[in-house]
Amino acid sequence: MPVSHPDPIWVTDNDTLATYCTQWLKLDAIALDTEFIRTDTFYPKPGLIQLGTGQEVFLLDPLKIDNWQPFAQLLGSEQVVKVLHACSEDIEVFHILSGNKPAAIFDTQLAASYAGLGHSLGYQNLLKTLLGVDLPKDATRSDWLQRPLTDIQVSYATLDVVHLLEVYQLLQQRLKPMPHWNWLLEDCSNLSNGDLYPKPEEQWKEVKRAWQLRPRQLCVLKVLAEYREREARRSNVPRNRVIPRGSLWPLARYMPDNIHSLSAIQDMRHSNIRHYGEEVLSLIEMARELPGEQHPKPLPAPLPKAAKEHGQRLKRYTSQKAEELNLPVELLMLGKILTPMLRSRLEYGLFKLPEQLQGWRRTVFAEPMVEQLNQPEQ
């Protein structure tokens, strides 16, 4: 189907935004999308906000609007559904502009997965599948902070929300008669309620091979990983601009005490050392002197080969249940619960569910799974 769209309405001042927000608050649903740049910053730089009502498309200019309070009220309304596609970074942009995260989210990528259209389906493919619309992607990586935007950019941005409410209606029709509908709404609600950024004090646990380090080295790793996260946010620079990810483990392992030895650490560039070298050395010295009671507990080693058989049992059950529920396997077994379950089986002889697994996955899928798998094998 050839692509076409209405001429967008530009919103470029505070009063106009406030007036339209009053109107949009009366709607049942709006389509939203964002364009931004994140090449040399920790936080995305908002370049454009697109809003569709089904009849009209509005382009909100964050370079000219500086009072986003009316938009924050719209985002927070539980009565107006906000329809987005793969919305995690959009939520971040909204929070930066307005201080608010959208309530009543409907994520069409998530809904498409529940509807059996494919897991992590891109918007372009979703439109092709549901509407037969071929959406061009010519402007994806362009400069959204330039003004004026090119005609291609404006067309691309407009098309991103023109069909979104139509997709929402079609997915609703498919899913509402199914139990999947309430599960989808639960997942969409969690998108609004989750943390935007990881906890700085927990970042050391994500470093590869951290389990190999001794307690004093782990103390250095924890201090440096937390500093890296906090400093990247404070300075609004990419994390690797502060300390490259590949440098964290060798810094903790070898604990350099001067600039020369620091420069020998893997991935440490001259720019890292020039801007942050003295602080990194100071933190290493401080962390290595902390008393033993302040050292982190060692992380467990990777799962042994003995876990493979138990992992296969989990995967077989998950595949059978996914087929029974007509859902993608990825929606059932979230990666973050697999390893804790296998560790519990090796340590206690039983599969146990991690506390963080809640909601429909726990009651519909995980609790019956552990009950069955914990029975003595025949």
TrEMBL record:
InterPro entries linked: 3'-5'_exonuclease_dom (IPR002562), HRDC-like_sf (IPR010997), HRDC_dom (IPR002121), HRDC_dom_sf (IPR044876), RNase_D (IPR006292), RNase_D-like (IPR051086), RNaseH-like_sf (IPR012337), RNaseH_sf (IPR036397)
Record-linked Gene3D superfamilies: HRDC domain, Ribonuclease H-like superfamily/Ribonuclease H
KW Nuclease (keyword) present: yes
A Pfam short name: DNA_pol_A_exo1
Tree of life domain: Bacteria
SUPFAM superfamilies reported in the protein's UniProt record: HRDC-like, Ribonuclease H-like
Subcellular location: Cytoplasm
Enzyme Commission (EC) number: 3.1.13.5
Keywords: Cytoplasm, Exonuclease, Hydrolase, Nuclease, tRNA processing
Cofactor: a divalent metal cation
Catalytic reactions on record: Exonucleolytic cleavage that removes extra residues from the 3'-terminus of tRNA to produce 5'-mononucleotides
Molecular function terms, GO-annotated: ribonuclease D activity
Domain HRDC, chain residue ranges per copy: 214-294
Stated role: Exonuclease involved in the 3' processing of various precursor tRNAs. Initiates hydrolysis at the 3'-terminus of an RNA molecule and releases 5'-mononucleotides.
Family: Belongs to the RNase D family.
Protein name: Ribonuclease D
Lineage of producing organism: Bacteria, Pseudomonadati, Pseudomonadota, Gammaproteobacteria, Oceanospirillales
Gene: rnd
